[in-house]
Amino acid sequence: MEESQDITVNAGDIARLASVGRAAVSNWRRRHDDFPQPVGGTASSPLFSLPEIAAWLRRNGKSFEVSLGDLVWQRLRTSADDLRLGDLVGRVGAFLLFLQREPAAWREHGTQSLTGLAAATTDLPGHPDLRLDDLALVRLVAELAAERGPLETFEFLCERYVEAHSRQLSVTRDDVAALMSRLADPDGGTVLDPACGVGTLLLHTGSPLGQEINETNALLAAVRLLLRGAGARIVAGDSLREDGLAGELADAVVCDPPFNERAWGYEELTGDPRWEYGLPPRGESELAWVQHCLAHVRPGGLVAILMPAAAAGRRPGKRIRGNLLRTGALRAVVTLGPGGPDLWMLRRPDGGRPPSQLLMMDAGEDLSAVEAAWRAYTRDPEAELSGDCRTVRIIDLLDDEVDLSPARHRPQQGGPDFLRDFTGTLDRFRDITATLPEGPPALELLAERQDLPTTTVGELAKAGLISILQAPAKMSAEEGPLPVLTADDTALGASPSGWTTLDPALVMVRPGDVVTTALGAVRVITRSGAALGPQLTLYRVDPQRLDPDFLAGFLRSADATRVHSSSSRLDVRRARVPMLPLADQRKYGTAFRELFALEDRVRETTALGETLIRLGFDGLVDGHLRPCDQGV
């Protein structure tokens, strides 16, 4: 800990190190006179000495862990204020890229080899001298890279950086980013993101190209991509005002542009040749980004761009929307969640006959059907589609509003289909609500909180009570004879839906196994016969010493009480589990099992209720239903 003498931590950092909530840290400060005094920061966000906090936690019997990663991150936070923190993280990234490219130089000459850093990182944007002056920090980073690898080390630091600046940084959801890349670039060509931020959309592509207005974010994006071995090129600058890639055409474009930007360059860009479909109104910056993307994709190439829901119907943009429809450039509008954003799929015209129909879809929170609907549409744009998507005749959209909101064009159901759907949903809703328990399991309310002796999942694994298993790297769950339990199956409590080929490295699930997803869903397996899928972790317990339902309940609780809910990763090895006799574990396990079952039933009831409500409104409006005295 010698390197940590000057490192400071805030209340959130303390909570993470001690695996408690922020409220617990506030209580410690109020109730304990010997709690360390702030050494910096502000009254609303004080900073504390890490060695003093560690000594206090140890002195008061509070379990805590300062990993090497925590040590590196806290030293970074201590070495720079919030305005310069991103630049410092970028310099660490440059050093990690140097380590990856020149490992022999570092092993032989240590910090003296940093004179070659600039020559080894010439493909990074920004200032050519990205060296770190803090040699103690350099050694800590090198030690962490030796433990985790340069890429994982930098991803860890980027994740912490994004958490610390969550209000200033807008990062595309990982599942949305992966979907956009699959839709726009199925063949693995050159992919451009003209507003690439920290590079999230380009992580899923093979030949990335990007531009980013913020120099620090451009550096972070370049490091993330280059550490993956991609031949990436990232340019710093304002894509609309100062197009750093003018004249270049990519095979595909993906983009999550800034929304509702009024100062995007309207005055100076009035006569810009990119406005092939019309001059974007001052308040419609998103339509400027749409045309910028189309100008940078080859003829016939695809563009996947996220748009605010309002952009589909705002009156000032109707002329451009109409032109995008008439030329066949706009192919699909998909709503990705309540209130948006919408995903617009475009194809740069190449002289072929434009389609007569536009794909429209409201995906809600479930993105799984979007790709299948898009593939079906691209195979035959004139065919009628089934399910929650539909094709709408473009001529019917070219009215006085040119409103492309999927909610405005939801398909009307015919009489027989509507009757079947409505009565079936109503019957299922009645059946499931009739079987709902009257309340949760019997739980005793204690007058005072009961503190139980605890250990961690990591310690249980060391003691042999738990074996932690994962699927083989690069495992496919798309085709083959063997069923696969996927992350979605685990979250929904559904049967295995994936398929894979036989492989001796596969992990086969057994009854009593506890399976978790990266986002915190937890299940106790009741049936065998399926392989463990990607992005899942399996905890196989010794049933003579540990009850699986007991473990599952506390794993679920560990996720629900995470301090940093924006983090996509949960370090389950640090999750705390009470040390109780097996008989007591089973009592807890029974209660947890009943709560899990209640949660599944409530979730299913909610989904059926929402469907029933939607069908009720549709039926009353469309004339398939009418009110009656007795009710339905």
Automatic annotation (TrEMBL):
Species this protein is from: Streptosporangium brasiliense
Signal peptide: none
Protein's name according to its UniProt entry: DNA methylase adenine-specific domain-containing protein
Family matches, as Gene3D superfamilies: DNA methylase specificity domains, Vaccinia Virus protein VP39
Keyword Cell division in annotation: no
Transmembrane spans: none
InterPro entries the record matches: DNA_methylase_A-5, DNA_methylase_N6_adenine_CS, Restrct_endonuc_typeI_TRD_sf, SAM-dependent_MTases_sf, Type-I_RE_MTase_Subunit
Keyword Ubl conjugation: no
UniProt xrefs under Pfam families: N6_Mtase
Residue span, DNA methylase adenine-specific domain: 154-337
Lineage start: Bacteria, Bacillati, Actinomycetota, Actinomycetes, Streptosporangiales
Keywords recorded for this protein, A-Z: DNA-binding, Restriction system
